[in-house]
Design brief:
The chain has 453 residues and is an alpha+beta fold. It has helices at 43-54, 65-76, 143-149, 156-169, 178-181, 183-186, 190-198, 243-249, 253-259, 274-285, 352-362, 382-385, 392-413, 426-433; strands at residues 10-15, 20-23, 29-32, 36-38, 57-59, 80-86, 89-96, 113-114, 119-123, 126-130, 136-140, 172-173, 235-237, 289-293, 301-305, 317-323, 332-337, 342-347, 373-379, 417-421, 441-449. One of its GO terms (molecular function) is oxidoreductase activity.
């Protein structure tokens, strides 16, 4: 691949978006928004700050020491972006999101390799390298840089500069085995660490820009309705338990918490009944009512209420009972209509996709037995993602934990046994339900039935 002509590289400095210098008394300035106060500035340094406020400042050679010191400090503080260019062609850019303790090294020949945690992705019109262990992103501005990342060194001048900066920023390592030999690094899968950093408040989230309950989709997309589109076919009403009676006779919470265990063996000779299934679903997941949030200039949002808590009262989770043996209900895969406390048939029990959905559950049960009832927990992701940015899926997984514990404790109080599954076949769920995985996806599984004595 042909890159720019071989001429000296240029370092171009610009303020990080939102940053600027406010010059005060002679020799002083304050860098905003970090409120970093600079004192003892010589005129040359003050001139550079004024120039940065007006636009990019470029250097074809090493700047004078006072200027170099100032630029190094501002870059280390995370206040500046640094682009490396050749002529008018930007090769790559270091885009900090926090400060760094080390100083940028001089370019040198280094046979580095990309860190296993570095992810290349397109965002807008840019190709960006992100690494959850780094202090900056690297924006790839020219195809020749992508070729170097893939192992090319046709231009050693650019390659030396790039690999030196990648090693400095943590996007590259000298020894690929080093990330495997340290347990704390080897224990994290790249996608898990990337997800952890991007879905929590920290280096990227402290400004709260594009993070949290921003209702970013308001005015662009209609809210996802609280109630999902019903499956065709007849609705099967479930028995409604007497909550007044249960409030007087139910097992005390302290006893239930102490008695809760994961049950992996079930008695098919005495399966749970439709009344018990109805009670479990009613106590754990029915929709009690739906309120509406109406604000001038915004879309009307439906806010359900269920027995377990949900962020923003959005309640994106749905329950799909896969019933192999329940006294009073034909085998099959059903959707629990939490608004009508009823079941709607989704697929036959011998459907290949349903069999694939059940198979992982058998791996965690005693002697590989199939569950009496497997509750597939699904998320209508748009319910959360219309309101929340970046953190929505993390919140969905928290809700899965909340609902799972509610199912555990209620099943224990009812004399039933249950066990949560650590994984499920999401492709099989999509095939069985016909739902688009981007709109509704399997996020949890809970097996329940009559314990074997």
């Amino acid at each position: 691949m042909t890159g720019p002509s071989r001429t000296a590289l240029r370092n171009v400095y610009t303020w990080r978006p939102g940053s600027k210098a406010v010059l005060g008394a002679p020799g002083t300035a304050t860098v905003l928004p970090a409120k970093r106060r600079l004192t003892g500035l010589v005129p040359m340094q003050g001139g550079v700050l004024k120039a940065l406020n007006a636009g990019p400042v470029a250097f074809d050679a090493a700047p004078p020491p006072p200027v170099a010191d100032l630029l190094r400090d501002l870059l280390s503080a995370g206040a500046l972006e640094l682009a490396v260019s050749r002529g008018e062609t930007e090769l790559y850019r270091l885009r900090p999101f926090r400060s760094v303790d080390s100083t940028r090294p001089e370019p040198r020949h280094a046979d580095g390799v990309l860190s296993r945690f570095t992810v290349l992705r397109r965002t807008g019109g840019e190709v960006v390298a992100e690494n959850p262990r780094s202090w900056c992103d690297v924006v790839i501005g020219d195809p020749s840089v992508a070729a170097i990342l893939a192992g090319g060194r046709d231009d050693d001048l650019v390659a030396d500069s790039l690999w030196s900066d990648l090693l400095w920023t943590g996007h590259a390592v000298l020894d690929a085995d080093g990330e495997e030999s340290d347990f704390s690094a080897a224990a994290w899968s790249p996608h898990e660490l990337w997800f952890h950093r991007r879905s929590t408040v920290g280096d990227r989230g402290t400004s709260w820009a594009h993070f949290g309950p921003t209702r970013w989709a308001d005015g662009h997309f209609a809210p996802v309705p609280a109630s999902p589109e019903p499956y065709p076919g007849e609705s099967i009403p479930l028995p409604v338990p007497d909550l007044d009676r249960l409030s007087q006779s139910d097992v005390p919470l302290a006893r239930v918490v102490e008695d809760r265990v994961s049950v992996r063996s079930f008695d098919d000779a005495a399966p749970m009944t439709v009344a018990e299934l109805g009670e479990l679903l009613y106590r754990c997941a029915r929709t009690r009512n739906v309120a509406t949030l109406e604000r001038s200039g915004t879309a009307v949002t439906e806010l359900p209420s269920r027995p377990y808590p949900s962020g923003g009262s959005l309640y994106e989770l749905e329950i799909y009972p896969v019933i192999r043996t329940v006294d009073g209900v034909a085998p099959g895969m059903y959707h629990y209509d939490s608004y009508r406390h009823a079941l709607r048939r989704v697929a036959d029990i011998d459907d290949p996709a349903v069999n694939r959905l059940l198979s992982p559950a058998a791996l965690t049960l005693a002697d590989g037995e199939l569950p009496q009832v497997m509750l597939a927990l699904a998320a209508r992701a748009g319910r959360m993602m219309w309101t929340y940015e970046q953190m929505a899926y993390a919140v969905i997984l928290k809700h899965v934990g909340v609902l799972t514990q509610t199912l555990y404790l209620t099943a224990t109080a009812m004399g039933l046994g249950g066990v949560a599954q650590g994984y499920g076949d999401t492709a099989a769920f999509a095939a069985a339900t016909g739902r688009d995985e981007l709109e509704e996806c399997n996020v949890g599984t809970f097996v329940v039935g009559r314990p074997r004595v």
